[in-house]
Design brief:
Elements: H1 2-21, E1 34-44, E2 51-56, E3 59-64, H2 68-73, E4 86-93, E5 100-108, E6 111-114
Parallel strand pairs: 3-5
Antiparallel strand pairs: 1-2, 1-4, 2-3, 4-5, 5-6
């Protein structure tokens, strides 16, 4: 019985940790659309969302993109986003002032890809 309680406690702790690791969309200010044109510094194709880093107004910003499968199915394969490539990203900034943007669309090489 004691092992069962320990396992249930561990499972609950893991669920909380997993939930807090995914920040959720409510932390972004959807009333404030930002459009940034900047070179990519770094791109991480990983789940649950791909991410990019850009230099914008003297600071590095984290850009939360879409899941990898969605980006690829909409014509944005991994090799299309590379460090140094200039992109235009439109999305919502974090409400707390953190340099992070939830990207809604990205334009590169004259092609716009809807991410949501």
């Amino acid at each position: 019985m004691r092992i069962r309680h320990l396992l249930m406690g561990a499972a609950a702790a893991l669920a909380v940790a997993t939930a807090s690791a995914h920040h959720g969309w409510s932390s972004y200010d959807v009333s404030k659309t930002v459009k940034i044109e900047a070179p990519l510094v770094d791109v991480q194709y990983r789940n649950p969302h791909a991410e990019a880093t850009i230099d914008y107004q003297g600071a590095q910003w984290n850009v939360v993109l879409a899941p990898v499968s969605r980006m690829e199915s909409r014509g944005l394969p991994k090799d299309s986003l590379a460090a140094g490539k200039v992109v235009s990203i439109e999305g919502y900034p974090r409400s707390d002032g953190t340099h992070e943007l939830r990207a809604e669309r990205i334009t590169l090489d004259g092609k716009t890809v809807e991410l949501r």
